[in-house]
Fold these 3 entries.
Entry 1:
Amino acid sequence: MASWNPWHGCHKLSEGCRNCYVYRIDERHGKDSSVITRTRDFDLPVRRKRDKSYKIKPGTLVYTCFSSDFFVEDADLWRPEAWRMMRERNDLHFFMITKRIDRFLNCIPEDWGDGYENVTICCTMENQDRTDFRLPIYRDAPIRHKLIICEPLLSDIDFYNCLGTWVEQVIVGGESGNRARICNYDWVLNIRKQCIHGKVPFSFKQTGARLLKDGYLYHIKRRYQHSQARKAKIDTE
């Protein structure tokens, strides 16, 4: 596993961005997250060692652009070169998450076709409003590997029986941080039910800091949020 952040910073776009972890981290260091900058690691996937072999080993899963959004407007000039590096490193698998799926068709390279086999593009759907907007765009987009990310989960969500073989997994999680909004466990179970109906793998990634379950509001420390979600044992394959 490796991380590649070709650029850093983003613009808050929807309710899921309100308590963005990138903004929280940058704030501690006096940085302005709304300023998008190309990073020193821009060419990381194609960097080589002295023996001319790549620094990132073949077969590595590369978490891509997790300190920004790959499709943010400010990166339009840099993105073609990033795609070129992904083509060159077709022995790696690039994994990214976006809230800007509506920009996707304007940002892909000419040879994209039905998508690069070594690229997974996930789409965030944090509430019903963003699901209604992003789901049809994402479903019809030419992407080989698709995952829906309901994190932070901010409302109950109805996928209108649209889940199916086109999506490889749905991942759900609550919101972290001191200002975290409530995640209702009933919302989690409802999404799980829809995944089972659509025969789509489901994963409860984390509880978030404030989980409402059976009428009781649990305040869960950051270090326990993933483990408590696993203890629920509601993931499906």
Note: Residues 151-237 form one domain.
Entry 2:
Amino acid sequence: MSDHATERPRYFELLELAETQSEVLAFWLTGSRGKARETAASDYDCVLIVRDEAFETWRTRHAKRAHGLTDCSVMTMDGLRAHAAWGGADAWDRYSFTHVRVLVDRTEGLCQQIIDEKARVPDLEIAGFVDRSLDHYLNQTYRALKCLRDGLPLAARLEAAEAIAPMLDALFALNGGRLRPFYKYLAWELTEHPLSSGQALALQAPALLDPDPKTLGRLLRDTELLFRAASHGPVFDAWGDDLAWMRG
């Protein structure tokens, strides 16, 4: 594998093309470098937005990896709008758009607006997304507690580990529709961009990796207190008598 010393010219070549070629509508870095979180081993993940009539030519020439370190995606504006659409198969990639700033923009800010919209849960979807995430978290907590009751500690750890993602989904979305970060960025997000509501609870989420009934019950009670105050009580009520058992 080549080193980044040979790869940097490839990135700057793309940047120069974006700055000088009118067929390019926008250009930015995504990945770690797009969030200013790069290390010496970080790739250059670039996005080129081009005019419709230029798409095939630019995709053929530039949508490729050079020595595995410079990755260039070529899209049209419609392709950008469709990518990582809420509810779509690649919606998992929406976090990639967080903290990203367009470096070259001939769209009068439209590309940045689309990026900012993709970097969060849509306003009309927040309440339902939080409810579904909470129910998933409760279900995993229930399954983990049953495994502990039945003397299956490994199974309990696996079930509880699956509760982390929906718990964090609900906590981040509760804060203005923020998206759960990729775990690589979780500690950074909680340090540099702390949650205004539920920060302490989010910091405790990794405790689910080593569950016991006391820990699971405590986290559930704290979660319930927070989300009932935010009008999500019906999700907990739907669990009926099982909720009291899970609380411990």
Note: The two ends are 54 Å apart (CA to CA).
Entry 3:
Amino acid sequence: MKNLLLLVFLLGVQISTFSQNEYLLKLHSFNGESPKTAFSEITRELEVSHRYINDSILTFQSPLLITINEMAQFVELHGYEIEDFQILTDNTDNTDNTDKPINNSGNVLKNGNQDCENATMVCDAASFSGNASGSGSNQELNGSNSGCLSWEHQSSWYYINVGSSGTLEMTISPTASDDYDWAIWGPFTEATANANCPPTSGPVRCSWAEGYGDTGMRSGTTNPCSWKWGCFCFADCDPNSENAYGNGWVAPLNVQEDEVYILLIDNYSTSNNPFDLTWGGTAGLECTEVPLPVELTAFNGQNKQGMNLLTWETATETNNDYFSIAHSSDGFSWQEIDKVSGAGNSTEVKNYSLEHRNFPSAINYYRLTQVDFDGKREVFPIISIDNLKNRKLIKRVNTLGQEVDQNFKGIVIEYYDDHTVEKRVY
């Protein structure tokens, strides 16, 4: 029932402007969780950015105009209770033209790809700067691989290639007062790194500390969270991983020549502000190309005469057993609808297609997964097809239940002839 109510609350929210409203949220209690854990759960499904926690108070921005009653109902769905909620600025009718901060560190810009499958290569130990504006087309963290993290907010993925053995240290320095989190998986080899991106198990180093400023791996690290309320030393004082009560630092990695690691750097604050990364320790880094088992050049979908036609193309294939095609009507819950045999090994362009007919009147999502003969899998970016275009609007009401016309400004609930209901902001 909770998930159903949450879906009704969020269903169909659309934004017609780039303006941002700023809010302050304070809870009566955190039910034994850290403030970061509680606020993360509450804001996960909302369209928020610039998320900051100070003295157990959350401030954030959103293009949505949210009333205190709506926020109270939403927070209650997650098992919490509001103590205070304020609209700090209301820019509903204005456009936010604030320029993004620029990086003045002088470091080379090396943006990590927002999806792991196309992670950026780190070829040497030179300092660099990076930034991300979202979590990519795939949400690649889950219960089996996330470790101390929750999910991706503004993510940057990197391949770290070890050129000489030693210890590997790292400092991530936000250029503004932002909360950056990160995790490292491995070790892998040149041949196995791609098959483990996104990772299939937990990270070897992980930091999800609550707070702002520098974070990373450094020698002599101790995790002070055992002296904080809600921290249990047998679980939370691991020098290799830390929860929200940590201090931002974990132990260095002991690495060997030719190992490959996967690094995710995530901006929890979702502020679009960049970071600077500096390497330390005795290990050396070099560039080792991580080959792709299948080079996908296109994956498209369109509605044709009552069916959704999916097409995709590969330029090369290596040990490709088959493709699995999954469908979702919400982008979260997936069901496999068919399998299509691959070409095995090929250096020629190959074209594939699939017809899907039994789909709901909604925005339908499709996920393509390539599977090797040995069972290794690669998930490609998700596509969507809008199958709502032929619906007829029956009525439009405001949050008080009063019927309104298309000129109404604010939050409205729309009812359609296919029995769907959507909440929109105009």
Note: The longest helix spans residues 68-77.
